[in-house]
Give the backbone structure.
Amino acid sequence: MQISIVIPCYGSEATIEGVVKEITEAMEKRNAVYEIILVNDASPDHIWEKIISLCSNHENIHGIHFSKNFGQHSALMAGYRHAKGDVVVSMDDDGQTPADELYKLLDKLEEGYDVVYAAYKRKKHNFFRNLGSKLNEYMCEKLLGKPKGLKATSYFVAKKFVIDEICRYHNPYAYVGGLIFRTTNNVGMVFVSHRARIMGDSGYNLRKLFALWLNGFTAFSIVPLRISSYVGMSSAVLGFIYLIYILIRRLLNPFVQMGWSSITAIMLLLGGMILLVLGMIGEYLGRVYIGLNNAPQYVIKEKTYMEPKDTDFE
């Protein structure tokens, strides 16, 4: 089995060397044929210099440097397009995902799955990161067709045909989970340990987690638009019923006072719903417009990508 390991890098100058060392040790235990592709997503630290150093010392490590920050999923897409292995592994650069348990995923893949995710019984993230992950899980399940009970994390392995299909997507709003679940439903899961962060903070704050969640359902599902239609229809029916109620009440008692406060509340509620639906439609149209303008998924500024010498990747 030829293995390609893709790692997006951001703010991991202090941890990436340890992650690479752990991967190398795990691969060498089984004499695996492998490559490691490190994608620098325009990190503000000196991670690119660290990647260059790692590439100069290991012929099976390759580096890609973005011209600006395009996000984790765009970095994964760039790594996938340079991967040559029969199996592609995606993992994080912070040391929290255990590289020494990689073969749990690879062995599970041998059972016939197309994709295998690593799941964590207990995540050692902060409250907001865990909340964002739960929202993302719910969104994937309801909108993208993720199998119920499956934990979709950033640590997973996939067969090459799945990666090849993912790489056919060239729009600027990449969301790897949505691309996987529209390609195959033959997905497995294994439990691995999850470590505490060695140093630094997660690159995902609440705003970025919300943006990722928004990107997922607007790029790969029209369910939100259908929900908007149902909400609009329900509001119209309720409004009609309330109008009939007011007319009947007025006919039965001409001296009854009209409830201006309730009417104002209903107007604010309906106005808010209308603005919400218009904003959602605008989000979809904006993404179509940006896609039609050929906005890049990513821009590679520099590469330290060397052809392997004595491996099957030639």
